[in-house]
Amino acid sequence: MTMQNRVVVGTAGTTAEDVVAVARGPAQVELSGEAVEALAAARRIVEDLAAGPEPVYGVSTGFGALAVRHIPAGLRTRLQRNIVRSHAAGMGPRVEREVVRALMFLRLKTLASGHTGVRPEVARALAGLLNAGITPVVHEYGSLGCSGDLAPLAHCALALLGEGEATGPDGAVRPTAELLAEHGLAPVELREKEGLALLNGTDGMLGMLVLACADLAHLLTCADITAALTLEALLGTEKVLAPELHAVRPHPGQAASAANMRAVLRGSGLTGHHQDDAPRVQDAYSVRCAPQVAGAGRDTLAHARTVAGRELAAAVDNPVVLPGEGRVESNGNFHGAPVAYVLDFLAIAAADLASIAERRTDRLLDRNRSHGLPPFLAGDAGVDSGLMIAQYTQAAMVSELKRLAVPASVDSIPSSAMQEDHVSMGWSAARKLRTAVDCLGRVIAVELCAAARALRLRAADGLTPAPAGTAVLAAMEEAGVAGPGEDRFLAPELAAAETFVRGGGLVAAAESVTGPLA
């Protein structure tokens, strides 16, 4: 549970809110008394089995395809240290700090469950890294999404040993041993099963799923607002948003998006103004079907959150300690398929939401379809190009999103001498989803710039936008996104619009009139 800036980790899992609070904020973590007791109880089982003559996977054997070797007691500390060192084999760019912190916190959550068999001091050491702001350097490549996110988790476990590199609160990369010493933290010497327990989880892909869900929930609201502004700027009709129409196709996300759009358009002086020279019986799909597409994205997000909730309540490890039965058993719970599927599903939803937003933008810029707006919303078309190339940029990102929507989870590549012969590729699905979410935010920002410019042009012609739209226009100007006029250096305005969207300014401005939106 989260208590202001403190997150208490117990035996029953955690929440998405806790993950975000630790990954992105200053929240400190601590183990509950119940968790410490569960850790100690599970550890006693591991130590009893370690003292016996029978080989137990992860306790007194090698790993993966090397599990056939029984390891004598004198080599087991070295065994656990070696698995961390050898598995810390990632390559490529550094992974973002928030992802690594989410990964570490989720591994701590599993340790605290009492199903991994590590000593309480190992869990406390991991909490100590988080609380000190020490973030191990984790690399882009190294996880196949099965047997856990092995290389990423190994780089985090390496920091517990005082090895490898990490960043401190200032973000500078330094030797981990120096950072531990500065914060009064001692390296850990791992014992039976502990190295393996620090590596065998879906924590990286789950952490990225939780963060993406939070971001997509916000962007879906932003997309409803920009779709409403575009409908208004195109003199469309709000009649298609009537609740009775959406009740006959009772998808909850669709109803929520339509309700958001109705709220933003309430009081508009533009909607329904069909032009005499080009009468419209109905608006184009990209306008008329906005709630259906965004609503499908909302329902996809709801499914992803259900899967994430189950994972947040899980203890993913192999082997797993069953305290009630005094057993340690091998299992396949580390397979990332449940998480990988929804990561890919969200990437599909993000791509389609961006695609329909780009089609609306293009309609605003095309004088043949914009119902009286100037070409490309330019000040002096021909001398000025307006937002012509902003739409090119938007289209490039939509094309990228379509490529990112190709699922990673349908791929598999065998590893570990065919012992691990089917993998989820969930880490890859998560990495591309993060890129997709970033692109979606930018795509929505471009539509917002076009819709806002069009609304200002309509206002100059005597048509009054809805109060919510008026509030958005005022907030955008304060945020550095100017209105129509002659051409100017556009990239800074697009960047300001992206910050306005991603940082909450768009939703806050609309909600200042509408009240809370879904």
From TrEMBL:
PROSITE patterns: PAL_HISTIDASE (PS00488)
Localization per Swiss-Prot or TrEMBL: Cytoplasm
EC number of this enzyme: 4.3.1.3
SUPFAM superfamilies: L-aspartase-like
Keywords: Histidine metabolism, Lyase
Pfam family, one: Lyase_aromatic
GO CC field: cytoplasm
Pathway involvement of the protein, from the record: Amino-acid degradation; L-histidine degradation into L-glutamate; N-formimidoyl-L-glutamate from L-histidine: step 1/3
A single MF term (Gene Ontology): histidine ammonia-lyase activity
Entry-linked InterPro entries: Aromatic_Lyase, Fumarase/histidase_N, HutH, L-Aspartase-like, Phe/His_NH3-lyase_AS
Catalytic activity: L-histidine = trans-urocanate + NH4(+)
Secretion signal, residue range per the UniProt entry: none
Major place of residence: cytoplasm
Gene Ontology biological process: cinnamic acid biosynthetic process; L-histidine catabolic process to glutamate and formamide; L-histidine catabolic process to glutamate and formate; protein homotetramerization
Entry superkingdom: Bacteria
Family as reported in the entry's similarity comment: Belongs to the PAL/histidase family.
NCBIfam families: hutH (TIGR01225), PRK09367.1 (NF006871)
PANTHER family, A to Z: HISTIDINE AMMONIA-LYASE
Official protein name in the record: Histidine ammonia-lyase
Natural source organism: Streptomyces carminius
